[in-house]
């Protein structure tokens, strides 16, 4: 089969001989704006090198040696539920076929030790994947670059968004003692209405009715749970129930929420540049969002000092807001809020008084045997001067 014609991008001066070959190869591929298919990339490097005699011989980039039976993006996309397009999956390069192989929620690439795929029942090792450390590092550099950020020794841990919500996180050695780590989150059940989640077993009929009523009555909702329990999915479904004439302003560290609503305004935090300046965090975005006349103010995940700004906003007439928070159980939520409040200089008493009046409902999710479901719905209360929580 003849090779497809590929336009060769402009080539930069020869790479620094002191620099690792894998990084040089990653930079070469980063000069392309298009999501080249894995089968095309080696030919792209070969063509570019053949037309520039002053360039060092090519190195093998992150192109895993996989079995011929690996599913293609186009073939497997029909099994996905999140509306992810082939072009979006192609941004994942050699990981694209695995991301499309059924109801995949996460991919974990642990250096040269291999690839693990989570299809809803927990991570499973993928025997058809094989790549050494230099290849994994080159792949990490490519993926982060496609999200508009950089990962290197100065910034060895980076989170980016690809397409409309594929989240990629990369960690380089020496921050990682086990090689380059790449974690990919695939929004498989984004844009699903609340009724579909209830039908899938995430919540029962009473819980569905209670949450619909809370959205209709513009209650402020905090969705909690451990990683991978479906917090983002449930939050997106809840916001999809908001009235079509309401303006939702959404703030995220890395944009991944996808909401079926006609009026969504999304803001995404920005990391510092190579000089260490230019960072814009969620706390700054929250202050800007208040000037945008939001009908519903939403923080994708509270992780630090932005909690102070959110509590202040929800206590000053901004009802119908929402956010998510990592917590192992409903009883652990008050302690988590106090810990985050301390990063913003808030005392436990201040956190308690503001949280009680800011949030009307706390919805806690858990994951058991691969199934995500609403475990409890509670509300904050004052236990003396401390923050407590009681089930509804």
UniProtKB/TrEMBL annotation:
Which InterPro entries does this chain map to?
Answer: P-loop_NTPase, T2SS/T4SS_dom, T4SS_GSP_E_ATPase, TadA-like_ATPase
Question: Which residues lie within the region annotated Disordered?
Answer: 1-22
Gene3D superfamilies according to UniProt: 3.30.450.370, P-loop containing nucleotide triphosphate hydrolases
Query: Which CDD domains does the UniProt record give?
Result: VirB11-like_ATPase (cd01130)
Ranges for domain Bacterial type II secretion system protein E: 150-351
For this protein, the record's NCBIfam families field holds:
heli_sec_ATPase (TIGR03819)
* Entry similarity comment: Belongs to the GSP E family.
Q: What is this protein called?
A: Pilus assembly protein CpaF
Q: Which organism is it from?
A: Agromyces flavus
């Amino acid at each position: 089969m003849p090779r497809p014609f590929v336009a060769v991008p402009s080539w930069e001066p020869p790479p620094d001989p002191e620099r690792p070959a894998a990084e040089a190869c990653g930079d070469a591929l980063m000069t392309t704006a298009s999501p080249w298919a894995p089968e095309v990339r080696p030919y792209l490097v070969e063509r570019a090198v053949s037309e520039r005699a002053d360039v060092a011989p090519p190195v093998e980039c992150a192109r895993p040696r996989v079995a011929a039976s690996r599913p293609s993006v186009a073939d497997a996309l029909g099994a996905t539920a999140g509306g992810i397009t082939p072009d979006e999956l192609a941004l994942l390069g050699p990981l694209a076929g695995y991301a499309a192989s059924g109801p995949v929620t996460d991919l974990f690439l642990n250096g040269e030790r291999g690839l693990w795929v989570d299809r809803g029942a927990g991570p499973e090792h993928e025997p058809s994947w094989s790549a050494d450390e230099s290849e994994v590092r080159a792949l990490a550099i490519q993926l982060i670059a496609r999200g508009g950020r950089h990962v290197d020794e100065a910034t060895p841990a980076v989170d980016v968004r690809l397409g409309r919500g594929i989240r990629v996180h990369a960690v380089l050695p020496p921050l990682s003692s086990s090689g380059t780590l790449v974690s990919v989150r695939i929004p498989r059940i984004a844009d699903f209405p609340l009724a579909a989640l209830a039908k899938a077993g995430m919540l029962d009929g009473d819980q569905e009715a209670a949450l619909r009523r809370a959205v209709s009555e513009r209650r402020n909702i905090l969705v909690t749970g451990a990683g991978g329990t479906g917090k983002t999915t449930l939050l997106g479904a809840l916001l999809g129930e908001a009235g079509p004439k309401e303006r939702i302003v959404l703030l995220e560290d890395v944009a991944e929420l996808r909401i079926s609503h006609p009026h969504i305004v999304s803001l995404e935090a920005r990391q510092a540049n190579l000089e260490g300046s230019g960072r814009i965090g969620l706390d700054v975005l929250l202050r800007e969002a208040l000037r945008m006349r939001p009908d519903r103010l939403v923080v994708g995940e509270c992780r630090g000092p932005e909690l102070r700004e959110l509590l202040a906003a929800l206590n000053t007439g901004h009802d119908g807001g929402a956010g998510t928070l990592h917590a192992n159980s409903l009883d652990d939520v008050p302690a988590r809020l106090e810990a985050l409040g301390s990063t913003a200089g808030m005392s436990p008493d201040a956190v308690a008084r503001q949280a009680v009046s800011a949030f009307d409902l706390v919805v806690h999710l858990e994951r058991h045997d691969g199934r995500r479901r609403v475990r409890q719905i509670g509300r904050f209360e004052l236990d003396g001067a401390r923050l407590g929580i009681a089930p509804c």
